[in-house]
Amino acid sequence: MHDDRHEFAESRLTTRHGEFRAIAFREYEGGPEHLALVHGDPTDVEAPLVRMHSECLTGDVFGARRCECGAQLSIAIEAVVNAGRGVIVYLRGHEGRGIGLLAKIRTHVLQDEDGLDTIDSAVALGLPVDVRDFGAAAVVLRHLGIGRVRLLSNSPAKVEALTGHGIVVTELVPVLEPADEHNVRYLTAKRDRLGHVLPQVDAAPDAPRGHTATGY
Fold first, then answer.
1. Is 11 annotated among the ligand-binding residues?
2. 3-class DSSP assignment, residue 117
3. Could you give the strand order of the β-sheet that contains 148-152, starting from the edge strand earlier in sequence?
4. End-to-end Cα, the chain, rounded Å
5. What's the pLDDT tens digit per position in 74-94?
6. Measured between alpha carbons, how far is 74 from 164 in angstroms, rounded to an integer?
7. Where does the GTP cyclohydrolase II domain lie (predicted)?
8. Is 155 annotated as a binding residue?
9. Measured between alpha carbons, how far is residue 66 from residues 73, 116, 182 in Å?
């Protein structure tokens, strides 16, 4: 199915979490292929739960513990299923906040060997901190007839990004993974330098402190 320059394909998908409509879509010809998992009828409520999840192969598939990506995805899917309706938008091409898998692994080396955080390690390689675009999420939400959402995220900047594409965010719903020895540096950098709302970091022992900035 085509909608102007957008392309969609849909089927039913049974997962260990429950039943979904699986909508594969592409925002533009030659662009990355994304996937939306739709549970129940999200148009039954004024603002359904929606998660815009950036692809993270190491976290989502292999359970890497230096980030909380895989845990956030599981938490978001559970929240949508428990609510009886909602949408998980899985955005490909977002690996490493858009720098790609090779570059992300290179930043890991700098983090482990030189003590740089997730932001400074990208900058040290001459890479941008974040080049993600969330327009594709707005495309599939409009395709589903959804104009207002409760966003499953800890990032106020994602609210701004989605709002900028014409989707109203009525609430930012936290998706919190406990901080531990493996992820505390990553979570602290996201809190202090990218503006994420992560109250669980305060309870973690020896959480490093950084300067503040804004971002996704």
1. no
2. coil
3. 2-3, 6-14, 19-26, 33-39, 86-91, 49-54, 148-152, 168-173
4. 31
5. 999 999 999 999 999 999 999
6. 27
7. 9-174
8. no
9. 15, 13, 5
Tell me the C-alpha distance between 136 and 148, whole Å: 16
**Nearest to 25, CA basis, from 58, 50, 1, 57:** 1
Tell me if 2 is assigned to a ligand binding site: no
Q: What is the pLDDT of residues 178-208, one digit of tens each?
A: 888 898 988 888 888 888 888 888 766 554 4
At residue 177, the pLDDT reads 86
The reply to whether 158 sits in an annotated binding site is yes
Query: What is the sign of the dihedral through the CA atoms of 214, 161, 119 and 111?
Result: positive
Check the annotation: does 52 bind a ligand.
yes
Do 87 and 144 meet the contact criterion of CB atoms below 8 Å apart?
yes
* 118 annotated as belonging to a binding site for a ligand: yes
**Of residues 177 and 5, more confidently modeled:** 177
Cβ neighbours around 211 below 10 Å, total: 6
Angstrom distance (rounded) from CA 38 to CA 183: 30
**pTM for this predicted structure:** 0.89
Q: What gap in Å lies between CA 89 and CA 38, rounded to an integer? A: 9
Contact 87, 74 (CB under 8 A): no
Catalytic residues: 130, 132
Q: What is the overall mean pLDDT for the chain?
A: 91
Q: From CA 106, how far away is CA 127, in angstroms rounded?
A: 11
Is the distance from CB of 141 to CB of 147 less than 8 angstroms?
yes
